[in-house]
Hints:
Elements: H1 2-27, H2 31-57, E1 66-68, E2 71-73, E3 77-78, E4 85-86, H3 114-137, H4 141-161, H5 165-194
Antiparallel strand pairs: 1-2, 3-4
Helix pairs in contact: 1-2, 2-3, 3-4, 4-5
Amino acid sequence: MIREVVSDGLLALAVLTVAAAALGVAVMPDAYARLHYVTPAAVVAPVFVTLAIFVTEGLDHRRARLYDRHGPVPVARHDARDARPRPRRLASATRAPAGPRPAGEGEGATMIPVAAMDTLQIVALVGVAAGATVVVRTRSRVRQVLALSVYGMLLAILFFVFQAPDVTLSELSVGAVALPIVLLLAIAKVRKPEQ
Length: 195
């Protein structure tokens, strides 16, 4: 219950951040001032959404999970009647398939323990929070755009660690490459009439 309330509060903060940034972009008279209102929407709101997901999912070590290259792997669970671990059966696999196993499956699969995945997720979250702080605190417009590009890379790494490869590719192409290029072109165009 508390997790849901905190998660909803963080999502509401993300929505309010984007709404305030949109209002600031609509009200500001010049492109430089508008750029400072775009940054919170692009930086702070994703951090709130990421924290909401983190609060909802949490670091629950009671859910023992191992990861291989295809995602979570079912592990043995204990039966309440005795202390012997009983393997969980997959719903679709009641019998082992005939023939040789594909490479990378079964006993030879690389397993990543839960603690390592949790550590990677925490490091990625801290990196995103630090990157967001750097972007917001940077005052030079060009440096801020470059910091935004690095922040896009950090977000892509975060999405990859949380096993969302499609979002990772989108963030790499849009957040780390396309958006900084568009912003740098806009800054160059605005500076040209001033000179």
